[in-house]
Amino acid sequence: MPVSLRVLATGGTIAGVASSSASSTDYQPAALGIDTLLDAVPALRDVAQVDGRQIAAIDSRNASPEFWKVVGRAVQDALDDPAIDGVVVTHGTDTVEETAWYLHLTLKSNKPVVMVAAMRPASSLSADGPLNLLNAARVAADPRAAGRGVMLVLNHQIFGARGTRKTHTMRPDAFSSVDGVLGQVHDEVIDWTIRSEYPHTMATPFSIDTPLVDVEILMAYTGASPALIDAVRTSGAGGLIWAGSGNGSASDDALVGLRRAASAGLVVVRASRTGDGPVHKQENDVPEAERLLNAGTLNPIQARILLMLALGHGMSAAEAFTKF
Question: Phi, psi at residue 142, to the nearest 5°?
Answer without folding.
Answer: -80, 125
